[in-house]
Amino acid sequence: MVDAAVLEKLEAGFTKLAASDSKSLLKKHLSREVFDKLKNKKTSFGSTLLDCIQSGIENLDSGFGIYAPDAEAYTVFADIFDPMIRDYHGFAKDAKHPPRDFGDINSFPNVDPTGEYVVSTRVRCGRSMDGYSFNPRLTEAQYKEMEDKVSSTLSGLEGELKGKYYPLTGMTKEDQQQLIDDHFLFKECDRFLQAANACRFWPTGRGIYHNDEKTFLVWCNEEDHLRIISMQKGGDLGEIYRRLVNAVNDIEKRIPFSHHKRLGFLTFCPTNLGTTIRASVHIKVPKLAKDYAKLEEVAGKYNLQVRGTSGEHTESIGGIYDISNKRRLGLTEYQAVKEMSDGILELIKIEASL
Ligand code: ADP
Ligand code: DAR
C-alpha cells in the first residue's frame, strides 16, 4: 500500500504538472485516468509512481520527465511508460526489441579520414546489474557493494582494455574536474537526476575505470549502473566500435545484466532503452552551424541528435557539437551505429558542399 504522505505529494505534483505549460512527454501522457490507475501501485522494490515522476514534476522543462526507479517499474507502471516510450522511440506497445546484434564489427569506416571536421568519436552503452534497483531505491551499502563488484570484475580485463578503477571518493577536485573537462568523466549530478533521487550518498559507490590511453572507460553508478565507453580522437568509428563490442562481450561474461524480453537492455532513463547505444562525434561544421535550426533539421533527416559540446543541456564551445544517433530502441546495435555513421558521412558531405 502507498502511504498517505506519498499520495499527498503525488496529488500536489499532478495538480502542479497539469496546471503548467510543461512540454514534457510526461505532461502529455499523464492523464488523470492514468494517474488514478497507477498512484496506489508499488513494485517489489517498494517503488511508487512518485519515484518515477518526481523529476518531471520538479523540472517542468524536462523533455521526457520520467525515470524507472527499478526494472519492475516498466511493467508495474506500463500505463505511463508505454505511451511515452512509443512517443519518444516510435516503439509500439506490441513491438519487440530485436535480439542483441553487433553485426560485422569490421564494417564501420573512419567517418572523417582527413580529420578536417571530426575532433573525436565515442560509442557508449548502458548496463544495469540484475537484482539491483536503479538509483532512487539503492541503499548506501548497495552502492558500495556494486562498486566493489564492478571494480573487481574490471580488474580482470586484459590487453587494450586493461586499466584501473578510480573511485570518486578520495579523488581530488582538480583530478575530477580535469577528467570532466576532457569529457572522460560524467559531470556532477544535474537537477534532473537530483530530483529523481539519483544522487543520494554521492560520491559513495561512484567512479570511473579507464585504460592508460583513456580510450576505454566505464562509469560506475552515475545515471546507470554502468556506462561502457570506447572513444578516441579522430573519426575512426571502426576501431572504436570494435573496442566497445570486445569490452561488452568480455564484461557480460562476468556480470549478469537486466534484459527485458520486449524492451531490450534496461536503463534508468527510458530514452536509453533497447540497445542503450549512443554513438557520437564531436564535430565542427561551421557552415551548417551558422543556422542552428538548419543544422538540427538536416541532422534530423538522418535520425541524428545535435547537442552541445558537453552533452545534453549544454552549449557548443568553440563550434564543437556532440552529434549522435537518436534511435536506440527497436533496432539492433549494428543498425543504430550504422544510422550514425551514414548520417555523419552525409552531414560532412553537405558541409563540404557549402
Ligand atoms: P547521456 O547520453 O546521458 O547524455 P553520454 O553517454 O552522451 O551521456 O555522455 C555525455 C558525455 O560524453 C558528455 O560529457 C560529452 O561531452 C561526452 N561525449 C559525448 N560524445 C563525445 C565525443 N564524440 N567525444 C568526446 N566526448 C564526448
Ligand atoms: N533530463 C531528463 C532526461 C532526458 C534524457 N537524458 C538522460 N537520460 N541523460 C528529461 O526528461 O529531460
List the main descriptive attributes of the protein structure presented here.
binds D-arginine, globular, 15% strand, two-stranded antiparallel ribbon, 10 strands, 37% helix, alpha+beta, binds adenosine-5'-diphosphate, 354 residues
Provide an overview of this structure.
With 354 residues, this protein is an alpha+beta fold. The chain has helices at 4-19, 25-29, 32-38, 49-58, 73-76, 78-89, 140-154, 173-181, 191-195, 237-252, 292-301, 333-353; strands at residues 118-127, 163-167, 207-211, 216-220, 226-233, 259-260, 264-265, 278-284, 304-307, 320-325. The longest helix is centred in the C-terminal third of the chain and has 21 residues, at 333-353. Helix 1 (4-19) runs parallel beside helix 4. The chain is built from twelve helices and ten strands. It has a domain at 4-89: ATP:guanido phosphotransferase, N-terminal domain (Transferase Creatine Kinase, Chain A, domain 1, Orthogonal Bundle), CATH 1.10.135.10. It binds adenosine-5'-diphosphate (ADP) and D-arginine.
